[in-house]
Amino acid sequence: MFSGIESSLVALRDEDDLVNTVVAGLGTGAIYRAARGPRSAAIAGVIGGIAAAAAVAGKHVVKRYLLV
């Protein structure tokens, strides 16, 4: 689900950046909890977006400061 949303955003926006990843995390979290109601979907969406942003930020930190 995450990859599909992210790939769709790359195709629509014609850019591959952090925004696509965060929005894909938001969308995935929201869709995952949509059956439990809008409040649960919103909370899960925010958590998914934060998790996606943290993963991308961590990837950049590792690339910059560690010899990988």
UniProtKB/TrEMBL annotation:
Main location: membrane
CC terms in the record's Gene Ontology section: TIM23 mitochondrial import inner membrane translocase complex
Domain of life: Eukaryota
PANTHER family to which the protein is assigned, alphabetical: MITOCHONDRIAL IMPORT INNER MEMBRANE TRANSLOCASE SUBUNIT TIM23-3, TIM23
Topology of the protein relative to the lipid bilayer: Multi-pass membrane protein
Gene source species: Linum tenue
Annotated InterPro entries: Tim23-like
Name of this protein: Uncharacterized protein
Subcellular location: Membrane
